[in-house]
């Protein structure tokens, strides 16, 4: 072996050790580094795959949450498919991509709440209107908030005797095709629950109803050793904390935090202030992930907070502070166009999900150095 060859081997060893050290360090500081976005349409699937390879893998993202809902060609319930839904072959491309890059792939279908948006009823209640918690509330031609009905999004009735057979068949199918050990059920911003006019839910405790639905889903997933993830806003007292009716609850569901299984992962989202409620969830015994959206400076603060929580906690509390997840609430297509500066005529803005994504993962990148 020449001196030059020996030098190259030493250099490669140093670089490998350095990379492994950096990886170990960021894993210790931010174990879960996640990205949440709507599942892409078939036409842009290859663009999305390239985005994952070029932007997520290079930033050491290790969890990809795809909001699928009905953008899949369900075989169990083809009547619930979107018109141009992803095929099994499409999903398997994403599964292979994530396996190759050690990324946990998690699907989401909105359960309980978010069964409508603006003036549009989503597929479940469109096909099965009998599941509607508030069927007397009609969808407006033009949606405005606030409105006389208090309509934000429709909910299904958690006590309807037939609803879980349908939704659990969807859940099982999407989890199987994703080859996943976790499922995200949404369950955020549930304004309609335990309505006084509902023949099944009227007069029942809203916290118990919400907790009952969380545990029902959690227990079903546990049959196949899968874990439940949900958004955390319904478990926060929006009045007492001043956090409000969107990032917290005004309809008394917050007491459900003491009634649900502790192995549910809480995705704790705060978009207008970097509220430190991750501590609350961790103290209640839950694994928690902090989720920013569009304000870069807050994402940086939230990332720093997460590291501080882990470093300053007891050995029992530390593992509950699981990490960070950038959320995107536009389509995958529009986010990619925004990220790469394509097809936009809007003036440059600081507070966008693309800039928030860059800021959060840039802050994480500094942690590994």
Describe it.
This is Family 20 glycosylhydrolase. InterPro entries: GH, Glyco_hydro_20_cat, HEXDC-like. Keywords: Hydrolase, Signal. Residues 84-308 form the Glycoside hydrolase family 20 catalytic domain. Belongs to the glycosyl hydrolase 20 family. The protein has helices at 3-29, 45-56, 88-100, 123-127, 163-178, 206-222, 238-241, 278-283, 296-312, 332-339, 353-367, and strands at residues 32-38, 63-67, 104-111, 116-117, 120-121, 182-186, 227-231, 265-269, 288-291, 321-327. It is of the alpha/beta class. The chain has one domain (31-109, 157-367): Alpha-Beta Barrel (TIM Barrel). The strands form 2 sheets. Strands 1-2-3-6-7-8-9-10 form an 8-stranded parallel beta barrel, surrounded by 5 helices. Helix 9 packs parallel to helix 11. The radius of gyration is 22 Å and the shape is globular. The chain starts with a helix and ends with a helix. The model is unreliable at 13-18 (pLDDT under 50).
Q: Quick summary of this structure?
A:
The protein is α/β, with parallel strands linked by helices and 369 residues long. Helix content is 38%, strand content 14%. The chain has helices at 3-29, 45-56, 88-100, 123-127, 163-178, 206-222, 238-241, 278-283, 296-312, 332-339, 353-367, and strands spanning 32-38, 63-67, 104-111, 116-117, 120-121, 182-186, 227-231, 265-269, 288-291, 321-327.
Secondary structure topology:
Elements: H1 3-29, E1 32-38, H2 45-56, E2 63-67, H3 88-100, E3 104-111, E4 116-117, E5 120-121, H4 123-127, H5 163-178, E6 182-186, H6 206-222, E7 227-231, H7 238-241, E8 265-269, H8 278-283, E9 288-291, H9 296-312, E10 321-327, H10 332-339, H11 353-367
Parallel strand pairs: 1-2, 1-10, 2-3, 3-6, 6-7, 7-8, 8-9, 9-10
Antiparallel strand pairs: 4-5
Helix pairs in contact: 2-3, 9-11
